[in-house]
Amino acid sequence: xxxIYLTGEPLVETDESVVRPIDLSxxxxxxxxxxxxxxHDDAVPRGDVAEILWPADRPPxxxxxxxxVISNVRRGLPPPLEIEHATGCYRxxxxxxxxxxxxxxxxxxxxxxxxxxxxxxxxxxxxxxVATAITKRPFLVGEDxxxxxxxxxxxxxxxxxxxxxxxxxxxxxxxxxxALRYIESLIDxxxxxxxxxxxxxxxxxxxxxxxxxxxxxERCRAALAEELGVSPHAETEALYDHILEA
Length: 246
Description:
The chain has 246 residues and is an alpha+beta fold. The chain has helices at 26-38, 46-53, 62-76, 101-117, 124-135, 146-172, 176-189, 194-206, 210-228, 234-245; strands spanning 3-5, 11-13, 18-19, 44-45, 82-86, 89-93, 99-100. The chain has three domains: 3-93, Orthogonal Bundle (Arc Repressor Mutant, subunit A); 100-173; 174-246, Alpha Horseshoe (Serine Threonine Protein Phosphatase 5, Tetratricopeptide repeat). 61% of the residues lie in helices and 9% in strands. The strands form two sheets. A four-stranded mixed sheet has the order 3-2-1-7. Strands 4-6-5 form a three-stranded antiparallel sheet. The chain is elongated and about 70 Å long.
């Protein structure tokens, strides 16, 4: 069984070994592994790989340098992982039964959302645990560039989906403390996401903390006014009024 981790420290695990970036030409090997494994089995143009390695300015003779990096990564990868090179592209061949953490997180979030739609709430907890654990890990610490930033945005969006599903489970199961912690994580990720404040208001009120619900509304109002110069949406105002009148 091959397990590929792209979050945290990118590495490849097999039953016999663990391959870390230092085994794959260090920083550049780490980037190449992540770039090719993100959408493995898809061909990635050589120029796109170079852009990920050198987002600001490619070095002289970058083609030869890139080829050397690819060669080092190819030698360090355990079989049956294989980097193919054809028509100016690279492709990482991965066995169909391999486990890739980002793929597992997407699959788990999708499964959790599907279970919620089917009102099969008992299965939601395990799926959200997988998705939230993986998406909590950092991505390519110390790196920047358009490709890296785009992947971070994808992972943040996926984490928001996973946290939303986890909150659904916790509220269904009357677990107010964990639900509130998940909501605070949502607000930390996007302080201007108004639906997160509505969740905070609803869960606070459901747990018997009407004062907490009122504070959540004030946090929302202050954040929107300070950052965007707008007032809360009518849906938020209506929820606030409903909580006050309850």
